[in-house]
Design a protein that fits this description.
The protein has 193 residues and is α+β, with helices and mostly antiparallel strands. The chain has three helices and six strands; from the N terminus they run H-H-H-E-E-E-E-E-E. The longest helix is centred in the N-terminal third of the chain and has 84 residues. The termini are far apart.
């Protein structure tokens, strides 16, 4: 009987091996299934995280677009206000000169001393030029200056009395002005030839 048990055990032993392999195979498949499920869950989590990030970035983009649009509208409005009211500062500065001119006209009608009237007008002119200079206006100097097409406009040519006066300003018929170093009116001059 001992031999029969041994034989039976021997017969059973080979059959047990495939069962163990089957169990092992099923165990691997279970692990693979768990791994696949874990990978799918991980991919799903990554996808949800990416979608959440995309939604947040879209929200930020819309906010920035709206902010830029408001900025653009504000700049356009400020520009329009500047164009409409840009002269307010200079006009406010000139109003006292206008008042002085009105007083001078009243005094000219009553005045008997012409020299006093001339002095009053000269003071008003100096006050007016002072205001304009504060705004950046400067007269272009033409006295004994070399002719410069950037600053001067030649309206006539005159024979030079000396060789040094060739291509120099002989006379200025209309003053020129610069506003903050930009020529806003060329000086009209007579040039020596």
């Amino acid at each position: 009987m001992a031999t029969e048990e041994t034989i039976n055990n021997e017969e059973l032993a080979p059959e047990e091996t495939p069962v163990d392999e089957t169990i092992a195979g099923q165990s691997e498949q279970g692990k693979n299934a768990e791994t696949t499920a874990a990978e799918e869950q991980s991919e799903q989590d990554l996808l949800e995280a990416a979608q959440a990030e995309i939604a947040e970035l879209k929200k930020q983009l819309l906010y920035k677009v709206a902010e830029f649009d408001n900025y653009r509208k504000r700049v356009i409005k400020e520009k329009a206000d500047l164009i409409l009211n840009g002269g307010e500062k200079i006009i406010t500065a000139i109003l006292p000169v206008m008042d002085d001119m009105e007083r001078a006209i009243e005094q000219m009608q009553k005045a008997e001393d012409v020299q006093a009237v001339v002095e009053g007008v000269v003071l008003i002119q100096k006050k007016f030029m002072g205001i304009l200079e504060k705004q950046g206006l400067k007269a272009i100097d033409t006295k004994d200056a070399a002719f410069d097409v950037e600053l001067h406009e030649a309206i006539a040519q005159f024979p030079a009395t000396t060789p040094e006066m060739k291509n120099k300003v002989v006379d200025c018929t209309l003053k020129g002005y610069k506003l903050n170093e930009k020529v806003i009116r060329h000086a009209q001059v007579v040039v020596g030839i």
